[in-house]
């Protein structure tokens, strides 16, 4: 497999459920990202990991909990979500050199999340 | 938060027509990026621009980094049905930091065969 793979592609969950989104990158990159894509809003960066270390958390509510066990895998654990959290959640990866996050982002195809 | 103004919001054109879209910002950017998102997929990078005035092509696509560093445009020549999708611009305030990308809202392109 190549590129960035996200599972599941679609997820419907109730507000009291706990679920996880998974992302795996096969590009040899060392940085991974979670983005939220909602209608009529620009892409929102949620979290960034560099070599398993979280380097960015854009004031994301604690009901979203990321986990990066290694530079190829990224998870987003979800619990007690709200209906307004329904969106497309995109994972991306890139190559970081030193402190430079300049290489292009490679996105997965996203998980379409619906919170009922 | 900061936002780019991307226009037009949507376009419906005939196959073979040329397309032009642009992004403007109140801030100076050091990098402009153009991505395309096909239905059901994630965004894919089309063109990256790193210098003011830079004009770069990728097949039928041409993008330019505005001289003022506050705008960029993307042209598609001789459109085909597979050009359908949403085109996003993204600007980077600081070179070397894609954690600080500012995204436009996208231009949705529909092509009538």
Oligomer: heterodimer
Which stretches of chain A of 5+ consecutive residues score pLDDT under 50? none
Percent range of helical residues of chain A: under 10%
Number of strands of chain A: 11
Biggest interface, residues from each chain: A-B, 25 and 23 residues
Mean pLDDT of chain A: 91
Task: Pick out its properties.
heterodimer; A: 116 residues; mainly beta; seven-stranded mixed sheet; four-stranded antiparallel sheet; B: 113 residues; six-stranded mixed sheet; 53% strand; globular
Topology:
The complex is a heterodimer of chains A (116) and B (113).
Chain A: E1 4-7, E2 10-13, E3 18-25, E4 31-37, E5 44-50, E6 53-57, E7 64-70, E8 73-79, E9 87-94, E10 106-107, E11 111-115
Parallel strand pairs in A: 2-11
Antiparallel strand pairs in A: 1-3, 3-8, 4-5, 4-9, 5-6, 7-8, 9-10, 9-11
Chain B: E1 5-7, E2 10-14, E3 19-24, E4 31-37, E5 43-49, E6 55-58, E7 61-65, E8 71-76, E9 85-92, E10 101-103, E11 107-112
Parallel strand pairs in B: 2-11
Antiparallel strand pairs in B: 1-3, 3-8, 4-5, 4-9, 6-7, 7-8, 9-10, 9-11
């Amino acid at each position: 497999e190549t590129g960035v793979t996200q599972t599941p592609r679609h997820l419907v969950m109730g507000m009291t459920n706990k679920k996880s989104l998974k992302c795996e990158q096969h590009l040899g990159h060392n940085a991974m990202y979670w983005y939220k894509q909602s209608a009529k809003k620009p892409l929102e960066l949620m979290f960034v990991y560099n070599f398993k270390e979280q380097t960015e958390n854009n004031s994301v509510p604690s009901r979203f909990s990321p986990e990066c066990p290694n530079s190829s895998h990224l998870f987003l654990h979800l619990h007690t979500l709200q209906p307004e959290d329904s969106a497309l959640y995109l994972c991306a990866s890139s190559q970081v050199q030193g402190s430079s996050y300049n290489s292009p982002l490679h996105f997965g195809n996203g998980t379409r999340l619906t919170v009922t | 938060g900061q936002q780019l103004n991307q226009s037009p919001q949507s376009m419906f054109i005939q196959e073979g027509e040329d397309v032009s879209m642009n992004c403007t910002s109140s801030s100076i950017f050091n990098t402009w990026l153009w991505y395309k998102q096909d239905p059901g997929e994630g965004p894919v990078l089309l063109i990256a621009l790193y210098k003011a005035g830079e004009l770069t092509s990728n097949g039928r696509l041409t993008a330019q980094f505005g001289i003022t560093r506050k705008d960029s445009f993307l042209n598609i020549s001789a459109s085909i049905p597979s050009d359908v999708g949403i085109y996003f611009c993204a600007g980077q305030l600081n070179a070397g930091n894609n954690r600080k990308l500012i995204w436009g809202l996208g231009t949705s392109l529909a092509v009538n065969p």
